Amino acid sequence: MRRLVTYEDDREFSKLLERRSDVDLAVVNLELSRDAYPELNFTETLAWIDQRGRELAVEMKSSDGDLTRLQRIANCLGNRHELRGSVQSFQSVDGSYLHKVIEQRHGLPIVMSILYQAVAEQVGINLHGVAAPMHFLLGHMDGDEPLYIDPFAGGEVMSREDCLIFLSKRTNFAFEELEPYLRPARPRDVVTRLLNNLKAMYAQEQNWEASFKVQQRLYSLEPADYANRRDLGIVAFHAGKTGKAWHLLKSCLAEASEKEQVVLAGFLNQAERKLAEWN
């Protein structure tokens, strides 16, 4: 299946379409944010990140050891600039957009992790996304022992064992089930998770036009994926893009289970009636 949008203006998102890994996730987030805020200027957000880097550069000169350096980053962002998790972040799409997270001082774990990662990079510290179940974290893998950071908790730094205990309590998963999740997440996986969060929130709000833009990006990342194509067709139908919905859903019928074929047929019948009214 071909992609429906080229995203020529989205330099970093376009790298994901090429399956590149040299992706600036902070800029990708801003590119996604521009779908919701078309007038968004990236400069202010990127300048804020740069300022935090300069702030930390002085402190890092007197920091010995990985743990101390990570704690300095946490102190800068979590305490001095009061970036912490909040239940509100799960109730609004703005918790997924980097510029709004900086403005509001709270956001989803995955977006706060992207922010921590971007600031850490300014002072030469590599942090990796950790796509754990139910809670996104960061990992620092360059030292003798891995360390994990929870930006949602104000930047709490954990050992591997402490991280497994924390996640096990949240998920009821055994340590051996959780260990594979502690590996660094690929940029594509981070962005897909972020887009799925947005997709769920916009669907809950029944904001189908915004949901269509999100689902279109998911489809562009994996155009051969049946579920992405099906969901794009359903969202297109709800967004009033009837012709596009009909073509997408029609192309899904051959791959759909019998149960799903019934659901898709219902959407197709409605779409055909709407199209007939326009002719």
Description:
- β1 (128-130) and β2 form a beta hairpin.
- This protein has helices at residues 11-17, 25-36, 42-60, 66-80, 98-104, 109-122, 160-171, 175-178, 187-205, 208-221, 226-238, 242-252, 258-278; strands spanning 128-130, 137-140, 147-150, 156-159.
- The protein has a domain at 22-182: Roll (C8orf32 fold).
- Strands 1-2-3-4 form a four-stranded antiparallel β-sheet.
- The radius of gyration is 21 Å and the shape is elongated.
- The chain is mainly alpha-helical.
- The chain has 13 helices and four strands.
- α3 packs across α6 (109-122), α9 (187-205) packs antiparallel against α10 and α10 packs antiparallel against α11.
Strand order of the largest sheet: 1-2-3-4
Mean pLDDT over all positions: 94
Give the DSSP E fraction (strand runs of 2 or more residues).
5-15%
Shape descriptor: elongated
Unreliable runs, pLDDT <50, ≥5 residues? none
- CATH class value of the domain at 22-182: Alpha Beta
Helical residues, percent: 55-70%
- H/E element order: HHHHHHEEEEHHHHHHH
